[in-house]
């Protein structure tokens, strides 16, 4: 019999608040976390509206030694992991170390850490470069630091598939549960609001240059013109279902289906594969399209990419065939963190019977025949939710979560 993977703990850091409770309250209240940059002087950069995690003081939440050793992305991951463990009522010290895994995703690395150390190198010489430069900027640092802190030595890894990685890592967490791990901490974190990190987001031409936080990110809207970038993190405690029952912990839901697909090169003439990822996740979950209650869409905010997503949704569910929402309009696209935060919202929708809305969108494009939830949250009996993510250069991923009876 296949071992089932359920989610028993949640941890979130988002531009709309620190902690799952704060994030969820803001999502239902329609409060946005988008605004001007405060961590650096934005005057020399075309990007003006972003989603920063507010009032995050690492030293208040982590030991000083850990703060010195880590980049902001890893600090986000450690804080989220701690909340997920507390929420899931799990003490790692009481569990076999080789039955606990860590699988994370990251898209931009520890940009601000690397820039600081390189500035020290050029301005002050190699003796002023910290020893942790060798690892703190690296994408795998999140998995490594979480596993070290909690003594988790099971099957672990990291995904670097841009935004799609926030779902790929959770799909892998389900795989390691099936392969023998009892627990897995899994999710995405990203922070790239330093000069070097910001510069890397400009060349693709997908980021909104609008100065109005209320108009900077409008997926599926006739006025869509790019996305607002965000930062943050989310970590899930994924657990084998029998273990959760034995511990008496109520799961938020089951990771029931997962699939990924990569777009072919444009010169091949073949179309994108987002629909294939959606259909693969539904097939993996043994779920018919009509049984899906809500889709947490990718919502790029770029007209041609929005149109492709709408075509995929209409192809699977029919025009306006399923409720759709993009709660990340309140946070910006948080790269690897974004889809895992969407998974948190999907799991909370399963538990509470309410779907958060898509903020700021007022005029849905005729090219996007979707039942987009606007304005207020929508109360609904949510038993099955689909979460979609796409990454730059053709990554596609989809996850189906279901209520646990």
TrEMBL record:
Judging by the UniProt lineage, the source's domain of life is: Bacteria
Query: Which residues are in coiled coils?
Result: none
What residues form the membrane-spanning segments? none
Is Acyltransferase one of the keywords? yes
Q: Which family does it belong to?
A: Belongs to the thiolase-like superfamily. Beta-ketoacyl-ACP synthases family.
Mind telling me which Pfam families this protein's record contains? ketoacyl-synt, Ketoacyl-synt_C
Quote the InterPro entries the UniProt record gives.
Beta-ketoacyl_synthase, Ketoacyl_synth_C, Ketoacyl_synth_N, PKS_Beta-ketoAc_synthase_dom, Thiolase-like
Q: Does the keyword Acyltransferase apply?
A: yes
**What keywords are assigned to this protein?**
Acyltransferase, Transferase
What are the residue boundaries of the Ketosynthase family 3 (KS3) domain, all occurrences included? 2-403
Protein name per the record: Ketosynthase chain-length factor
